[in-house]
Design goal:
Elements: H1 4-20, H2 22-28, E1 32-33, E2 43-44, H3 46-65, E3 69-70, E4 76-78, H4 79-85, H5 87-91, E5 97-98, E6 105-107, H6 112-119, E7 131-140, E8 156-166, H7 171-188, E9 195-199, H8 209-225, E10 231-233, E11 243-249, E12 255-264, H9 267-270, E13 275-276, E14 282-283, E15 286-291, H10 296-306, E16 320-324, H11 330-342, E17 347-349, H12 356-365, E18 370-374, H13 376-381, E19 383-388, E20 393-397, H14 398-408, E21 414-416, E22 422-424
Parallel strand pairs: 3-7, 9-10, 16-17, 16-18
Antiparallel strand pairs: 1-2, 4-6, 5-6, 7-8, 8-15, 9-11, 11-12, 12-15, 13-14, 18-19, 19-20, 21-22
Helix pairs in contact: 2-10, 7-8
């Protein structure tokens, strides 16, 4: 048998995989681009930024309901701050810095020291704890060019950073709260339960062995209290504390590390954080670092590859394309679009000079999940013909179409109570 068919099949398989790579999907769906003269920096297009904001707004709302206060901190900070925190010794080679002496500054590679500065902005009491801060922090890291990989590894990115300042006795409850949040988010975005790892003390670290003994035991106990089974990753912890890492598997079986929760007693001490304890003495808080998405751009890349570009309705940048059959229905098409917009649905008008079939093909190529076709009959009867990705169609009144699509315009939710428990709706 000739080897040509096998070679052709291999080529076709590679082409199919390339087509599903987020680096191909992003430009093809007009979401973003990265150009040669700005390696590792992402230019988000309108459709891509819409998707970006859907993710950001979703996690923002969930965290607000759980008692997190959103903050904003500078991107450019004194190098001395990073030296005191220990990040300069650990990450200085991968930080963008400028200036010398008293004017030595650096772009932040993460937000944790900044949140300590906010905590230090006033005299804190044990009655205020746990104190929770959240930030969509823009970070920069000078990654080597060979490590850059689309949205998966960039030099400029945004994280869903959060930090909890608490007492040792609060740790188990705060970790449970985070795990419940993480579980509901991953479920809503279409992923199965994550694989969990406990990363322990690295060779180069800050803090005493006794402190690490307590932190590793406390985080392990909290994980078991949440019903988590985990693998041990020796030596993979942060320099300031151990961490739980949560990895998601996509539909191709690939594993991607996303969420993390880290237990830290080092940075608060180094940066002078303290509170007045119940007995009137000054005590150093425990600091819990966590993120659900990690890098938002990286999570978008995962979502696109996991869903092969066909995002669920609630995530799609453009959810419904309104397509009048003829120019005579243009006014009614605008009425339909306005009704969708008023309901918070993301609609787009496809009314150029192309044939209806070509416009429907263009909507499918843009991965718009629903096309609302309006012709003379629909305009006369106040209806729309909805065409789904799978080819099914339904003719509904405009009000019914709006309510039907609105029902789909929210993620599957799980309610998380303030004690950290989760119940799927």
């Amino acid at each position: 048998m000739s080897a040509q068919p096998s070679s052709a099949r291999l080529h076709a398989r590679k082409q199919a995989m390339d087509d599903l790579d987020h680096r191909s999907l992003g430009p093809r769906l007009d979401l973003w681009h990265i150009q040669e003269d700005a390696p590792g920096m992402v230019f988000w297009h309108p459709r891509g930024h819409t998707l970006y904001r859907v993710l950001e707004d979703d996690i923002r709302g969930r965290m607000r309901r759980l008692g997190y206060a959103e903050v904003r901190t500078p991107q450019l900070l004194p190098r001395e701050l990073w030296m005191r925190s220990g990040h300069w010794d650990k990450f200085g080679d991968h930080m963008f810095s400028l200036g010398e002496g008293e004017r030595a500054m650096a772009l932040k590679p993460m937000s944790c020291p900044c949140h300590v500065q906010i905590f230090n902005g006033g005299l804190r009491s044990w009655r205020e704890l746990p104190l929770r801060y959240a930030e969509f922090g823009i970070c920069h890291r000078d990654e080597p060019s060979g490590a850059l990989h689309g949205l998966m590894r960039t030099r400029g990115f945004e994280q869903d950073d959060a930090h909890v300042f608490c007492r040792a006795e609060d740790v188990a409850g705060e970790v449970a709260r985070f795990v419940a949040l993480l579980t509901e988010v991953y479920t809503a975005f279409g992923f199965a339960a994550p694989e969990v790892s406990l990363s322990t003390r690295p060779l180069l670290r800050a803090g005493s062995d006794a402190l690490w003994d307590w932190a590793e035991a406390a985080l392990a106990d909290a994980a078991r209290g949440c019903g988590l089974s985990y693998a041990i990753q020796p030596g993979e912890g942060a320099f300031y504390g151990p961490k739980l890492e949560f990895a998601l598997r996509d539909r191709l079986g690939r594993s991607w590390q996303c969420g993390t929760v880290q237990l830290d007693s080092v940075l608060p001490d180094r940066l002078g954080a303290s509170y007045v304890a119940a007995d009137g003495t000054r005590a150093t808080p425990v600091m819990i670092h966590h993120a659900v998405f990690g890098s938002i751009g990286r999570f978008i890349a995962m979502l696109l590859e996991h869903h092969a570009g066909a995002l669920p309705f609630w995530l799609s940048p453009d959810q419904v394309a309104v397509a009048p059959i003829a120019q005579d229905q243009a006014d009614y098409a605008m009425q339909v679009l306005a009704a969708f917009d008023a309901a918070g649905l993301r609609g787009v008008l496809l009314a150029d000079g192309e044939t209806l079939s070509r416009r429907i093909v263009a909507a499918r190529a843009a991965s718009i999940p629903v096309v609302a076709v309006v012709g003379a009959r629909e305009a006369a009867q106040g209806t729309v013909s909805l065409r789904e990705r799978d080819g099914t169609t339904s003719v509904l009144t405009l009000d019914r179409a709006v309510s039907t699509l609105s029902e789909r315009n929210r993620p599957p939710r799980a309610s998380v109570d303030r004690a950290g428990g989760a119940d799927l709706d």
